[in-house]
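Shape matters. Shown next:

___
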Amino acid sequence: MNRTSSVIILLLLAVIGVGATYFVDYSSAPHIAAEQRLIDSRNLLDLLPRDSYDNDPLQQPLQLDNSALTHSTLLAGYLATKGGQPSAVLLQSETIGYAGAIVLMIAVDTHGKLLAVKTLSQSETQGLGAGIADWPNAWLQGFAGKSRNEPPDNAWALKRDQGQFDQIAGATITSRAVINAVHDALRYFDAHAQTLTRIRPNE
């Protein structure tokens, strides 16, 4: 076998190898993308009890009106349903903490009771406010069961501000920001509950 033949064979093998790699990547891409969507969905929705919905809430986005609230901004909303009936509303909220934006996912049941709060992103100080990102989070669990009027408006504050809530140790500004954002979300739900929980024909 001369040198030219050897080079041609090596080139053919390289082309075949590249083609096979491309085919494997191309054929597996949809599966990988689907798995990634599932992981992302679980990360966003694990604040809801799994048996509380049977749809994919992230595929049922809500139209939000007047999303710039008193202390926060609503970035998105989603509807969870079970058996064709609304079971919860998810409100994605952004507020400003000590070091920057804090993005929360806030789950509210159809009666306006807060189910859970989860931090999706934050840039707070490590060892202090950054603890808001822990999941599960004992401090955030303290909001479960609260609603628009339970406690009353003047109690939605830190105890040091004559309110009802403890703060995260060493993170007063972070704590205030989250309390205010959660209260904003509950007030928004109360004002728009009928629209937020309405089942649309194509759902």
In short: Residues 1-45 form one domain.
